[in-house]
Backbone:
């Protein structure tokens, strides 16, 4: 294989993986800290993509769309936690699955009512609308590089917050023993709302920056949801580090699978998950369940 | 899985009686609709054996339904119907074998990991049938004619005849329900119930819990195959969408919606979901929105599912079985 071509595939795989990490980190946090299986997590990605489409159309720039849209997405996550999710913390996982499934149906229909069923495109920011020339025939779009950098920056910030701040300490403690944190006098209710809203915001942010890379269409959240569950499970449920490693693995496996065996690319990702679970039933970085 | 309370059993029998009359009074559309509902009910019951029986939540159960449907399509000759005596055992057996193979690997995990590994196997089969050329690829396969039920050249049942197919499905549904009742009362049923409640203790008592779980998984795969067979017979068309996680998710929603604590739960859930879908679809294109609202309201107000609705509606004193002083 041509080394430049391979380089492009690797860059694409990493960029896709980093995007997956942003979405999956919220999912794995919700599970680790809140003990909630949130099937509607992919819908936040969809909300982000549609916010990007709508606000870019209005303001003309994706930057502005992100600045305006992110608070909206955070507010939506916060509201959903307060109105529905918080009643599920003590309930069986299956009821969480059922309720968040209902939420998917509602958000998907609202999307179809408000935006219709057409496929939309979102232009990349003008400042980044150019490509790096690698050889005479191959080039790499600057916007993809920017997406990777943005994802890395968010990941680094998240790492800093979780590892080195008081809030992060409480979040980590909550994922180990929620009751203990409550007994120690921390407001777990507020912490839960915060973590859920942050997860929703991360997924929506991923949807926004990914909008120019792929089109914005109905049902795009469902697609993303399943892949993110794969990432979370391979990495080990509740582990941010696991989600990071698994997201890159899945991103690369998917990208290279599509290049070499298009018919079997999607199978490859799931085969990776099965192999991981058979080798380590609790995922790469998971604690024993 | 508890047997339903008497009140609910009476209602279920009344519902059964009403179903018996459907082909006599309702038009073609409803005969077809209720055949579909009953097929889904069998599918949901097969998953119920796993979810409420053993406590194993599968999100890949559609795979066995779809495999059986595909087997019917593949064994049917190009111009005539396959023999039921060949197609039915092959469909159920194929689904059971696939369930045993997938189960043997999946049962090594538990909890959410089990949900995900079953989902992964389901998705792998979906993409295998969707992205490659085997069995018609993304276009699916048509079945030229419905399976033939005949002994020595004499037809016993015409599955082409809608009411006949309807009654055959009704019998299949009732038989599945009774069969699951027998299973839950048998020593095997008691053993898997024990595993659901406390697997550690069952192992300490000397039970091979892995083997019990595997047999339950195989059995529920076989029953899912049974419903897949009926589906293929009714619609004479199969496509990869049957393998998609939506199909598995739908069955899981039916089981949880109906209620996990009762053997009637999956049945109630299947009837409720398919019929409400049909009802709401008639007057709005955005019917999924209302289904979503319905599902969320059930979760928030009826933690034990729809089967809990009736006891709640009864006056409190009657519910407790206490006589009211005049």
Residues:
């Amino acid at each position: 294989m041509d080394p430049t071509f391979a380089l492009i595939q690797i860059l694409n795989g990493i960029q896709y993986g980093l995007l997956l990490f942003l979405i999956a980190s919220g999912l794995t946090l919700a599970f680790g800290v809140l003990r909630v299986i949130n099937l509607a997590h992919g819908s936040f990605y969809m909300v982000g993509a549609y916010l990007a489409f709508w606000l870019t159309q209005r303001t003309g720039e994706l930057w502005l769309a992100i600045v305006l849209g992110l608070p909206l997405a955070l507010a939506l996550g916060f509201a959903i936690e307060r109105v529905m999710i918080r009643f599920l913390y003590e309930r069986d996982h299956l009821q969480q699955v059922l309720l968040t499934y209902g939420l998917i149906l509602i958000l998907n229909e609202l999307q179809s009512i408000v935006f219709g069923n057409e496929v939309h495109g979102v232009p990349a920011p003008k400042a980044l609308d150019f490509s790096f020339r690698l050889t005479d025939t191959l080039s790499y779009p600057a916007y993809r590089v920017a997406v990777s950098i943005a994802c890395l920056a968010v990941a680094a910030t998240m790492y800093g917050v979780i590892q080195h701040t008081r809030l992060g300490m409480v979040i980590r403690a909550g994922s180990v023993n929620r009751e203990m944190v409550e007994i120690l006098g921390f407001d777990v209710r507020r912490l839960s709302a915060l973590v859920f809203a942050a997860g929703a915001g991360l997924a929506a942010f991923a949807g926004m920056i990914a909008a120019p890379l792929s089109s914005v269409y109905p049902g795009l959240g469902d697609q993303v949801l399943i892949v993110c569950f794969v990432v979370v499970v391979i990495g080990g449920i509740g582990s941010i580090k696991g989600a990071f490693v698994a997201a890159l693995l899945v991103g690369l496996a998917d990208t290279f699978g599509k290049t070499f065996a298009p018919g079997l690319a999607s199978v490859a990702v799931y085969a990776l998950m099965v192999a991981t679970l058979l080798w380590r039933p609790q995922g790469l970085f998971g604690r024993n369940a | 899985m508890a047997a339903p309370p008497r009140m609910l059993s009476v209602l279920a029998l009344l519902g059964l009686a009403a179903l018996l009359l459907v082909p006599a009074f309702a038009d073609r559309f409803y005969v077809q609709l209720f055949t579909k509902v009953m097929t889904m009910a069998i599918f949901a019951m097969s998953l119920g054996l796993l979810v409420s029986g053993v406590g194993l939540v599968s999100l890949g159960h559609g795979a066995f339904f779809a495999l059986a449907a595909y087997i019917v399509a593949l064994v049917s000759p190009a111009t005539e119907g396959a023999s039921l005596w060949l197609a039915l055992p092959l469909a159920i057996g194929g689904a059971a074998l696939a369930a045993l193979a997938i189960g043997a690997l999946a049962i090594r995990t538990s909890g959410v990991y089990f949900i995900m590994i079953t989902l992964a196997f389901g998705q792998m089969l979906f993409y295998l049938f969707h992205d490659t050329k085997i069995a018609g690829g993304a276009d699916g396969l048509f079945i030229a004619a419905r399976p033939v039920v005949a002994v020595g050249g004499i037809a016993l049942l015409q599955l082409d005849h809608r009411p006949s197919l309807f009654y055959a499905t009704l019998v299949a549904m009732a038989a599945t329900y009774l069969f699951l009742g027998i299973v839950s009362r048998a020593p095997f049923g008691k053993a898997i119930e024990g595993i659901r409640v406390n697997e550690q203790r069952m192992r300490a008592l000397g039970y091979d819990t892995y083997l019990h779980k595997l047999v339950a998984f195989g059995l529920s795969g076989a029953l899912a195959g049974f419903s897949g067979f009926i589906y293929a017979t009714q619609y004479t068309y199969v496509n990869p969408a049957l393998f998609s996680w939506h199909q598995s998710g739908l069955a899981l929603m039916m089981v949880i919606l109906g209620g996990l604590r009762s053997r009637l739960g999956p049945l109630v859930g299947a009837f409720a979901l398919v019929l409400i879908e049909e009802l709401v679809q008639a007057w709005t294109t955005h019917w999924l929105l209302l289904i979503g609202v319905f599902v969320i309201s059930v979760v928030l107000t009826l933690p034990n599912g729809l089967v809990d609705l009736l006891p709640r509606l009864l006056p409190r004193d009657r519910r407790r079985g206490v006589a009211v002083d005049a």
Summary: The interface with chain B takes residues 31, 37, 84, 87-88, 91-95, 97-99, 101-106, 108-110, 112-113, 226, 229-230, 233, 237, 262-267, 270-271, 273-274, 277-278, 281-283, 289 of chain A (CB under 8 Å).
